[in-house]
Automatic annotation (TrEMBL):
Protein name: Putative oxidoreductase
SUPFAM superfamilies documented for this protein: Glyceraldehyde-3-phosphate dehydrogenase-like, C-terminal domain, NAD(P)-binding Rossmann-fold domains
Domain (GFO/IDH/MocA-like oxidoreductase) ranges: 166-246
Pfam families: GFO_IDH_MocA (PF01408), GFO_IDH_MocA_C3 (PF22725)
Keywords: Oxidoreductase
Length: 301
Protein backbone atom coordinates (compact mmCIF):
# COMPACT_ATOMS: atom_id res chain seq x y z
CA UNK A 1 0.00 0.00 0.00
CA UNK A 2 1.33 3.41 -0.96
CA UNK A 3 1.33 6.26 1.56
CA UNK A 4 2.07 9.92 0.94
CA UNK A 5 5.20 11.16 -0.77
CA UNK A 6 6.82 13.99 1.25
CA UNK A 7 3.50 14.81 2.97
CA UNK A 8 1.87 15.40 -0.41
CA UNK A 9 -0.33 12.79 -2.03
CA UNK A 10 0.66 12.22 -5.66
CA UNK A 11 -2.60 11.62 -7.50
CA UNK A 12 -3.12 10.38 -11.03
CA UNK A 13 -6.34 11.44 -12.76
CA UNK A 14 -8.13 8.96 -15.00
CA UNK A 15 -10.42 10.88 -17.35
CA UNK A 16 -10.36 14.28 -19.02
CA UNK A 17 -14.01 15.05 -19.73
CA UNK A 18 -16.08 18.04 -18.53
CA UNK A 19 -16.24 16.96 -14.86
CA UNK A 20 -12.50 16.24 -14.78
CA UNK A 21 -11.87 19.65 -16.36
CA UNK A 22 -14.20 21.53 -14.02
CA UNK A 23 -13.62 19.81 -10.68
CA UNK A 24 -11.17 16.89 -10.40
CA UNK A 25 -8.23 18.38 -12.30
CA UNK A 26 -8.27 21.92 -10.88
CA UNK A 27 -9.09 20.61 -7.40
CA UNK A 28 -6.19 18.17 -7.30
CA UNK A 29 -3.80 20.76 -8.72
CA UNK A 30 -4.81 23.44 -6.19
CA UNK A 31 -5.14 21.46 -2.97
CA UNK A 32 -2.12 21.84 -0.63
CA UNK A 33 -2.17 18.13 0.24
CA UNK A 34 -2.23 16.76 -3.30
CA UNK A 35 -0.17 16.94 -6.45
CA UNK A 36 -1.75 16.25 -9.82
CA UNK A 37 0.99 13.92 -10.97
CA UNK A 38 -0.45 12.77 -14.28
CA UNK A 39 -3.53 12.48 -16.48
CA UNK A 40 -4.65 9.54 -18.58
CA UNK A 41 -7.74 9.44 -20.79
CA UNK A 42 -9.06 7.22 -23.54
CA UNK A 43 -8.58 10.22 -25.85
CA UNK A 44 -4.87 11.12 -25.61
CA UNK A 45 -5.48 14.61 -27.00
CA UNK A 46 -7.95 15.36 -24.18
CA UNK A 47 -5.45 14.14 -21.56
CA UNK A 48 -2.72 16.30 -23.09
CA UNK A 49 -4.94 19.39 -23.13
CA UNK A 50 -6.04 19.03 -19.51
CA UNK A 51 -2.58 18.12 -18.23
CA UNK A 52 -1.03 21.03 -20.08
CA UNK A 53 -3.51 23.51 -18.64
CA UNK A 54 -2.74 22.37 -15.10
CA UNK A 55 1.01 21.87 -15.30
CA UNK A 56 0.76 18.09 -15.12
CA UNK A 57 1.96 15.30 -17.40
CA UNK A 58 -0.17 13.40 -19.86
CA UNK A 59 0.50 9.67 -19.60
CA UNK A 60 -0.10 7.35 -22.53
CA UNK A 61 -0.77 4.13 -20.60
CA UNK A 62 -3.13 3.76 -17.66
CA UNK A 63 -0.97 1.16 -15.92
CA UNK A 64 2.01 3.51 -16.19
CA UNK A 65 -0.08 6.20 -14.53
CA UNK A 66 -1.16 3.87 -11.72
CA UNK A 67 2.39 2.68 -11.08
CA UNK A 68 3.73 6.21 -10.65
CA UNK A 69 1.33 7.67 -8.08
CA UNK A 70 0.08 7.23 -4.52
CA UNK A 71 -3.61 7.48 -5.40
CA UNK A 72 -5.91 7.49 -8.42
CA UNK A 73 -8.92 9.76 -8.97
CA UNK A 74 -11.52 8.62 -11.50
CA UNK A 75 -13.69 10.77 -13.73
CA UNK A 76 -14.84 8.18 -16.26
CA UNK A 77 -18.05 6.24 -17.01
CA UNK A 78 -19.08 3.66 -14.39
CA UNK A 79 -18.21 0.67 -16.57
CA UNK A 80 -14.68 1.97 -17.12
CA UNK A 81 -14.22 2.94 -13.48
CA UNK A 82 -15.33 -0.46 -12.21
CA UNK A 83 -12.56 -2.22 -14.12
CA UNK A 84 -9.75 0.29 -13.59
CA UNK A 85 -10.46 0.92 -9.91
CA UNK A 86 -9.84 -2.76 -9.21
CA UNK A 87 -6.50 -2.55 -11.00
CA UNK A 88 -5.55 0.57 -9.03
CA UNK A 89 -6.49 -0.98 -5.69
CA UNK A 90 -4.69 -4.21 -6.47
CA UNK A 91 -1.59 -2.10 -7.19
CA UNK A 92 -1.90 -0.61 -3.69
CA UNK A 93 -3.23 2.78 -4.78
CA UNK A 94 -5.81 4.72 -2.78
CA UNK A 95 -8.87 5.56 -4.86
CA UNK A 96 -11.24 8.49 -5.34
CA UNK A 97 -14.32 7.05 -7.00
CA UNK A 98 -17.14 8.71 -8.88
CA UNK A 99 -20.72 7.61 -8.46
CA UNK A 100 -22.10 5.17 -9.32
CA UNK A 101 -19.08 3.07 -8.39
CA UNK A 102 -19.61 0.70 -11.33
CA UNK A 103 -22.18 -0.23 -13.96
CA UNK A 104 -23.67 -3.06 -11.88
CA UNK A 105 -24.04 -4.07 -8.27
CA UNK A 106 -21.82 -7.11 -8.83
CA UNK A 107 -19.04 -4.93 -10.24
CA UNK A 108 -19.39 -2.41 -7.40
CA UNK A 109 -19.00 -5.20 -4.86
CA UNK A 110 -15.89 -6.39 -6.71
CA UNK A 111 -14.38 -2.90 -6.40
CA UNK A 112 -15.12 -2.88 -2.67
CA UNK A 113 -13.55 -6.33 -2.29
CA UNK A 114 -10.39 -5.17 -4.06
CA UNK A 115 -10.17 -2.05 -1.89
CA UNK A 116 -10.60 -4.09 1.30
CA UNK A 117 -8.11 -6.74 0.23
CA UNK A 118 -5.48 -4.11 -0.56
CA UNK A 119 -6.09 -2.10 2.63
CA UNK A 120 -6.24 1.19 0.73
CA UNK A 121 -8.29 4.29 1.47
CA UNK A 122 -11.32 5.14 -0.66
CA UNK A 123 -13.86 7.94 -0.98
CA UNK A 124 -16.84 8.25 -3.30
CA UNK A 125 -17.45 11.71 -4.72
CA UNK A 126 -20.89 12.36 -3.23
CA UNK A 127 -19.82 15.94 -3.61
CA UNK A 128 -22.83 17.63 -1.96
CA UNK A 129 -22.18 15.72 1.27
CA UNK A 130 -19.04 17.82 1.74
CA UNK A 131 -20.92 21.13 1.56
CA UNK A 132 -21.13 22.86 4.97
CA UNK A 133 -24.88 23.45 4.53
CA UNK A 134 -25.44 19.72 3.96
CA UNK A 135 -23.35 18.76 6.96
CA UNK A 136 -25.22 21.26 9.14
CA UNK A 137 -28.60 20.03 7.87
CA UNK A 138 -27.76 16.40 8.60
CA UNK A 139 -26.67 17.35 12.11
CA UNK A 140 -30.05 19.04 12.63
CA UNK A 141 -31.84 16.02 11.19
CA UNK A 142 -30.04 13.64 13.53
CA UNK A 143 -30.68 15.90 16.53
CA UNK A 144 -34.37 16.28 15.70
CA UNK A 145 -35.50 12.83 16.75
CA UNK A 146 -37.69 10.50 14.70
CA UNK A 147 -38.85 11.64 11.26
CA UNK A 148 -41.85 10.15 9.51
CA UNK A 149 -40.74 10.82 5.97
CA UNK A 150 -38.73 12.77 3.43
CA UNK A 151 -39.10 14.10 -0.09
CA UNK A 152 -36.54 14.96 -2.74
CA UNK A 153 -36.55 16.46 -6.24
CA UNK A 154 -33.79 16.99 -8.80
CA UNK A 155 -35.17 18.35 -12.06
CA UNK A 156 -32.94 19.82 -14.76
CA UNK A 157 -32.32 20.05 -18.47
CA UNK A 158 -28.70 18.94 -18.25
CA UNK A 159 -29.15 16.21 -20.89
CA UNK A 160 -30.90 18.55 -23.32
CA UNK A 161 -27.76 20.58 -23.99
CA UNK A 162 -24.47 21.68 -22.50
CA UNK A 163 -21.22 19.99 -21.54
CA UNK A 164 -22.70 16.85 -20.00
CA UNK A 165 -25.34 16.19 -22.66
CA UNK A 166 -22.75 14.50 -24.90
CA UNK A 167 -21.95 11.87 -22.26
CA UNK A 168 -23.13 8.50 -23.59
CA UNK A 169 -23.44 6.83 -20.17
CA UNK A 170 -25.51 9.74 -18.84
CA UNK A 171 -27.80 9.61 -21.86
CA UNK A 172 -28.20 5.84 -21.44
CA UNK A 173 -28.68 5.80 -17.67
CA UNK A 174 -30.51 9.11 -17.43
CA UNK A 175 -31.17 10.92 -14.19
CA UNK A 176 -31.31 7.73 -12.13
CA UNK A 177 -27.68 6.88 -12.90
CA UNK A 178 -26.29 10.42 -12.71
CA UNK A 179 -28.09 12.43 -10.02
CA UNK A 180 -29.98 9.49 -8.51
CA UNK A 181 -27.01 8.45 -6.34
CA UNK A 182 -26.86 11.94 -4.80
CA UNK A 183 -30.54 11.93 -3.82
CA UNK A 184 -30.53 8.32 -2.63
CA UNK A 185 -27.47 8.98 -0.51
CA UNK A 186 -29.07 12.06 1.11
CA UNK A 187 -32.36 10.30 1.81
CA UNK A 188 -30.53 7.30 3.24
CA UNK A 189 -28.35 9.55 5.40
CA UNK A 190 -31.37 11.46 6.71
CA UNK A 191 -33.83 8.63 7.43
CA UNK A 192 -31.59 5.60 7.77
CA UNK A 193 -30.82 2.70 5.43
CA UNK A 194 -33.19 2.11 2.51
CA UNK A 195 -34.52 -1.42 2.98
CA UNK A 196 -37.13 -1.62 0.20
CA UNK A 197 -38.15 0.10 -3.01
CA UNK A 198 -41.93 0.23 -2.60
CA UNK A 199 -42.56 1.80 -6.01
CA UNK A 200 -40.53 2.91 -8.99
CA UNK A 201 -41.86 4.35 -12.22
CA UNK A 202 -40.24 6.00 -15.24
CA UNK A 203 -42.00 8.09 -17.84
CA UNK A 204 -40.81 10.45 -20.54
CA UNK A 205 -38.94 12.71 -20.49
CA UNK A 206 -36.66 10.59 -18.31
CA UNK A 207 -38.86 11.33 -15.29
CA UNK A 208 -38.44 8.93 -12.38
CA UNK A 209 -40.75 8.66 -9.35
CA UNK A 210 -39.58 6.53 -6.43
CA UNK A 211 -41.09 5.54 -3.09
CA UNK A 212 -38.66 4.05 -0.57
CA UNK A 213 -39.02 2.38 2.83
CA UNK A 214 -36.30 2.99 5.39
CA UNK A 215 -35.12 0.98 8.35
CA UNK A 216 -37.33 1.94 11.28
CA UNK A 217 -40.44 2.46 9.16
CA UNK A 218 -40.04 5.94 7.67
CA UNK A 219 -40.70 6.40 3.96
CA UNK A 220 -39.41 8.82 1.35
CA UNK A 221 -40.24 9.92 -2.18
CA UNK A 222 -37.94 11.12 -4.94
CA UNK A 223 -38.64 12.66 -8.35
CA UNK A 224 -35.82 13.23 -10.80
CA UNK A 225 -35.21 14.08 -14.43
CA UNK A 226 -32.42 15.63 -16.49
CA UNK A 227 -34.54 16.18 -19.59
CA UNK A 228 -36.89 18.91 -18.40
CA UNK A 229 -36.25 22.51 -19.54
CA UNK A 230 -35.61 23.80 -16.02
CA UNK A 231 -33.49 26.91 -15.47
CA UNK A 232 -32.24 27.01 -12.84
CA UNK A 233 -32.17 23.37 -11.79
CA UNK A 234 -34.75 22.48 -9.14
CA UNK A 235 -33.17 20.63 -6.22
CA UNK A 236 -34.81 20.22 -2.85
CA UNK A 237 -34.66 17.69 -0.04
CA UNK A 238 -36.65 17.84 3.20
CA UNK A 239 -37.62 15.67 6.15
CA UNK A 240 -40.86 15.97 8.11
CA UNK A 241 -42.54 14.50 11.16
CA UNK A 242 -43.47 15.38 14.72
CA UNK A 243 -40.54 17.81 14.87
CA UNK A 244 -41.92 19.75 11.89
CA UNK A 245 -40.45 20.29 8.44
CA UNK A 246 -36.71 20.67 7.87
CA UNK A 247 -35.46 21.51 4.39
CA UNK A 248 -31.91 21.29 3.08
CA UNK A 249 -31.09 24.89 2.11
CA UNK A 250 -30.20 24.57 -1.56
CA UNK A 251 -26.77 24.17 -3.14
CA UNK A 252 -24.99 27.31 -2.00
CA UNK A 253 -21.45 25.91 -1.92
CA UNK A 254 -19.80 25.48 -5.35
CA UNK A 255 -18.73 21.97 -6.34
CA UNK A 256 -15.06 23.02 -6.34
CA UNK A 257 -15.23 23.98 -2.66
CA UNK A 258 -17.01 20.73 -1.79
CA UNK A 259 -14.30 18.81 -3.64
CA UNK A 260 -11.59 20.62 -1.69
CA UNK A 261 -13.27 19.56 1.55
CA UNK A 262 -13.42 15.99 0.22
CA UNK A 263 -9.66 16.12 -0.44
CA UNK A 264 -9.13 17.29 3.15
CA UNK A 265 -10.77 14.06 4.32
CA UNK A 266 -9.04 11.89 1.72
CA UNK A 267 -5.52 13.11 2.50
CA UNK A 268 -6.23 12.76 6.24
CA UNK A 269 -7.25 9.12 5.72
CA UNK A 270 -4.02 8.34 3.92
CA UNK A 271 -1.84 10.34 6.31
CA UNK A 272 -3.35 8.60 9.35
CA UNK A 273 -3.36 5.12 7.82
CA UNK A 274 -7.15 4.82 8.04
CA UNK A 275 -9.46 3.22 5.51
CA UNK A 276 -12.95 3.66 7.01
CA UNK A 277 -15.06 6.73 6.23
CA UNK A 278 -18.83 7.31 6.08
CA UNK A 279 -18.48 7.92 2.34
CA UNK A 280 -15.99 5.21 1.44
CA UNK A 281 -16.50 2.55 -1.22
CA UNK A 282 -18.96 0.65 0.98
CA UNK A 283 -21.26 3.67 0.95
CA UNK A 284 -21.08 3.55 -2.82
CA UNK A 285 -22.07 -0.12 -2.79
CA UNK A 286 -25.01 0.61 -0.48
CA UNK A 287 -26.34 3.29 -2.81
CA UNK A 288 -25.77 0.99 -5.79
CA UNK A 289 -27.89 -1.67 -4.07
CA UNK A 290 -30.79 0.79 -4.06
CA UNK A 291 -30.18 1.73 -7.70
CA UNK A 292 -30.24 -1.96 -8.58
CA UNK A 293 -33.47 -2.47 -6.64
CA UNK A 294 -35.10 0.47 -8.45
CA UNK A 295 -34.20 -0.99 -11.85
CA UNK A 296 -35.53 -4.42 -10.85
CA UNK A 297 -38.87 -2.90 -9.91
CA UNK A 298 -39.08 -0.83 -13.11
CA UNK A 299 -38.12 -3.80 -15.28
CA UNK A 300 -40.37 -6.22 -13.39
CA UNK A 301 -37.50 -8.49 -12.30
Amino acid sequence: MTGMSDDVLRVGLVGAGPWAQAVHGPGLAAHPGTELAGVWARRPEAAAELAGALGATAVGDVDELISGVDAVAFAVPPAVQGELAIRAAEAGRHVLLEKPVADSLQSAKAVAHAVDAAGVASLVVFVRRFAPETRAWLEQVRAGGAWAGASARWLSGALLGGAYSESAWRQDGGALADVGPHLLDLLDAALGPVVEVLSAHRTEPDLWHLVLRHEGGASSTASLSMRLPMRPTVTDVAVYGDAGYLELPGRATPAAECYSALLDDFTALVRDGRTEHPLDVHRGVRVQQTLDAVLRVVEGR
